[in-house]
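Students often ask why we bother encoding 3D structure as a string. The short answer is that it lets us treat folding as translation between two languages. Here is a chain of 203 residues written in the first language.
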Amino acid sequence: MSSILYTFRRCPYAIRARMALTYAQIDFEQHEVELKNKPLELIKISPKATVPVLILENGDVLDESLDIMKWALKQKDPDKWTSNELEIQGDELIHLNDTYFKPILDNYKYPQKSEQKDPAYYREQAKSYLESLNSRLQEHRYLVADHITLTDIAIFPFIRQFYMVDEQWFGESDYTLLKVWLDYFLKSELFLRVMIKHTSGKS
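And here it is in the second language, the structure alphabet:
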């Protein structure tokens, strides 16, 4: 029996979990969830019923994407995505992404539901965060090191969503190094693999 992952293809939290599981060569059965019609078994094992949720072979349940990522990398981490010296710095950056940038991103994606109703307003709100990432890439090839780390994978799907709201604007922006970084992951074999459409079955 393999682990079971409840996921939604376009969800950034689910994308980063799938990327980590696939990178770590974890055998898992993928269940695509209809967010407007969540299966009862998902609600039963995780009352908050948000994806991703991973049921391990021993029956343990992980229902936070970062927990899934870190568990996967403890099983196998051939390219050293994690290390003690980078963990604190990386966790701080991921926390900023998840708590500060994500609400701005949601308002930017759906301005009709937001208080300001203006995507340009939320683009300006995101500016300091995006500039900080771009500046980091002046120091290292990736966000916290010269090699890919968990931090890059955890943040990439959210920058992808921001970029997709207005690709022309992002392409003409001054976030030069961030655009190169994003483009690398968008074209990566790992990302393309986890974005293949599934109904259910092994990945």
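Translate back mentally: The longest strand covers residues 3-7. Keep this in mind for the problem set.
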